[in-house]
Amino acid sequence: MIDAIDHEILRLLQKDGRMSATALAAEVGLTVAPCHRRIKELERKGVLTGYRAVVDPAAVGLSFQALVFVTLRDRAQMLAFEEAVGLHEQIVKADRLFGDPDFLLKVIAADLPGYQQFYDDVLVSLPGVEKLTSTIVMKTVKEEAGLPLRGERSGRVP
C-alpha cells in the first residue's frame, strides 16, 4: 500500500530525480534511513521504474518533431509492429490507441530532410503499416509532466 508519505516522495522525485536521500527525508519529515528504505521498496514494487536526465532536443541538434498517426492493415501485425517501433531511437514515444488510427508515434529528427529520410527508410516499412499521417509539431507548449500525485486531481492528498 502506498501512503501519503510515499506519494510525497514520488511527487518530489518526479520534480527532481537527483534529489539526495537526505534532502528528500527532510522534505517528507523522515530520517534518512527510513526514507531510503521507502525509496528502495518503491523501486522493488515497480512503482519507481527508473531515473533519467531530460535533454533539450534543440541543444543536441534534434529540433524537428512530428506526430505520426499509424493505421495497420490488420491486427495480426500488432505485436510485430510494437516490437519494431521499440528498436528505433528516433521514435521517442508510441501509444496504442482505441479506434482509428491504431497508434500515435512521436518522432524526432534534426530537420525536415532527416525526418523524410526516416519516414522513407523506416516508417513505411514497419510491419503491417497501411497508412501513415504525419503532422509537424509547431511548438511544444507543455512537456510531458509527472503524474498528479498530490492534490492536483481532486484538491486532496491521496
From TrEMBL:
Segments traversing the membrane: none
Keywords attached to this entry: DNA-binding, Transcription, Transcription regulation
Domain HTH asnC-type: 2-63
The UniProt record lists the keyword Transcription regulation: yes
Keyword Transcription annotated: yes
One GO location term (cellular component): cytosol
GO biological process per UniProt: response to amino acid
GO MF terms, alphabetically ordered: sequence-specific DNA binding
Name of the protein in question: Lrp/AsnC family transcriptional regulator
